[in-house]
Amino acid sequence: MDNNKPYVVGIDIGGTNTVFGVVDARGTILYSGSIKTGKHADVNDYVAELAKGLNAVIEQAGGHDKIKGIGVGAPNGNYFNGCIEFAANLPWKGKIPLAQLISEQVGGIPVSLTNDANAAAIGEMTYGAARGMKDFIMITLGTGVGSGIVIGGNLVYGHDGFAGELGHVIMRRHNGRVCGCGRHGCLEAYTSANGVARTAREYLEIRKDESVLREIDPDAITSKDVYDAAMKGDKIALEIFESTGAMLGEAFADFIAFSSPEAIILFGGLTKAGDLIMNPIKASLEKNILNAFAGKTKLLFSQLKESDAAVLGASALGWEAKEPTV
Amino acid sequence: MDNNKPYVVGIDIGGTNTVFGVVDARGTILYSGSIKTGKHADVNDYVAELAKGLNAVIEQAGGHDKIKGIGVGAPNGNYFNGCIEFAANLPWKGKIPLAQLISEQVGGIPVSLTNDANAAAIGEMTYGAARGMKDFIMITLGTGVGSGIVIGGNLVYGHDGFAGELGHVIMRRHNGRVCGCGRHGCLEAYTSANGVARTAREYLEIRKDESVLREIDPDAITSKDVYDAAMKGDKIALEIFESTGAMLGEAFADFIAFSSPEAIILFGGLTKAGDLIMNPIKASLEKNILNAFAGKTKLLFSQLKESDAAVLGASALGWEAKEPTV
Question: What CA–CA distance (Å, rounded) separates B315 from B71?
Fold first, then answer.
């Protein structure tokens, strides 16, 4: 840490809100703010409003000289060029040089940008469960399934900046579910929050046994409903977590064959299910793992508070931010 | 390159032969030799004979002072500790500190050791098709299916030194073939030379159409026979290459989702089939790739001469060899 520049800024750009904060080296968010992401059709207007908020929290923290760098987590964020590229859930089309645009509005503080799952991985390595680890995989189980892969202490960006799409390895090559990506059988189509809700609808349709889930309009069922039902001991809900965890364990066995990580760390909404999801993952991983790797990789939950994690993750990138190259 | 130490030594330890050579910076094998791997039940006797051969070629090259380092490619070689660990096809059981044993017998020249597929990847990066690449995956299609993964210019060893077992990702989760690893449905069980021979036996049994392969005792069919038949236009043989390539393309799509490499480079006996295997891989990869990665990753054959590749690959490790840590 640079003692003269003790803080970083993290910016998490979501489809709805953009949240930002000034963060210290221990991972405490000192000052924070937020704006609506979708309010401005022109990205320059968005950046202008964001910069107003950023400059305000930076002043609170003692001014621009105190900030080592700014990290941004954004959908389709490309670390290599600091651009958001063709993000389906954001209002700005094409390739947006966001790191540069932001840097220009905050007195030239260097800005680094990557996607949200990569930011989560860096956050975990800097402040969370992966401190001291050089090889781990972060899996985010949210609306989708994302991943950030760290190898030898570095995030894996690949040759184009977009590596780490582990939600889109194919788990079911025959009669696989349609995925949002247009293909069939992706991990995400089964083990995301949406995937869990889909599994619930399938089970309820195919099976005849009782379930409290039958009281809900099938089209409205969420993974939260499945969780609530499982906590009440509902058999179908419990089996849904079993089969979701089983598939994750199968997938993790393949991931371990690739990079042999010290840990796989789970983050995101579904991890609130705790043992309900972790126990079947562990059992399935044990069953599916290649002998040479058996018992070597830890399965952990993220140690970052969910409300802070996105900003913390993005901020972690700020410690190593350099002038954006466009 | 250190001008005072212009050479490295490569040692390739196979189940049958151990081949070694002095190599210059351009990848030319200047002096070489070989011994039988299985001749000595005691590893110390093996190392003594090997050292005699090594010291002889090193003298030919101008003496020990000319050698920057020695690289060893060996089954189950662990880069981190320089040990061969529980190699099924070698006569020495348990954990053998081979890098150290060799170094002691060649006047303390530093020795680095890794497995054969990793050595092939480093060789390709140093002398072959991957020169200048920082992100690529080497797939060896031989008796088994091995892999060496390079990310950000570094070989991926994982936290335990054994990363890169891409022959053992699961491609068929239901009714998958038994693999040598004891599990079912591994890539290797289908797309290794043995896998191709198994596919031939399956096709010949299930199907009724004519094939020149029917003239061979099914148990004796090799991938070479399938290749020869395909070159004669044999329909079943051609379909075997089609289905083998198709599965490789499926697997590669998943590998690309992991590390987004600039290239996947194929090496080993099966690559002699050329377009027969490459064309179906390409077609299948195009069909299976996640949109964001479409058309970005090159599919290439190794540029190393097969007879030299193992020694060259191992030797490449010698350029960065350091004192072995045990």
Answer: 5
Instruction: State the greatest distance between any 2 C-alpha atoms of chain B, in Å, as a whole number.
Output: 66
Could you report the per-residue pLDDT of A4-37, keeping only the tens digit for each?
Answer: 889 999 999 988 899 999 999 999 999 999 999 9
Question: Is B296's CB within 8 Å of A183's CB?
Answer: no
Which chain A residues are closer than 8 Å to B181 by Cβ? 290-291
Beta carbons of B164 and B136 less than 8 angstroms apart = no
**Residues of chain B contacting residue A298, judged by C-beta atoms under 8 Å apart:** none
- Using the Cβ of A163 and the Cβ atoms of chain B, whether some distance falls under 8 Å is answered with yes
Q: Which of A137, A139, A151 to probe the B interface (max B CBs under 10 A)?
A: A151
Question: Going by C-beta distance under 8 Å and a sequence separation of 6 or more, which residues neighbour residue B261?
Answer: A158, A159, B135, B136, B137, B149, B150, B151, B255, B297
Number of C-beta neighbours around residue A98 at 10 A: 27
Out of B135, B156, B158, the one facing A159 most closely (by C-beta) is B135
User: What H or E segment, with its residue span, contains residue B34?
Assistant: strand B29-36
What is the pTM (predicted TM-score) of this model? 0.92
Taking only the tens place, the pLDDT of each residue in B262-283 is 999 999 989 999 999 999 999 9
Residues B117 and B146: their CA atoms lie apart, in Å, by: 6
- Which of A156, A181, A259 is nearest residue B163 as measured by Cβ atoms? A259
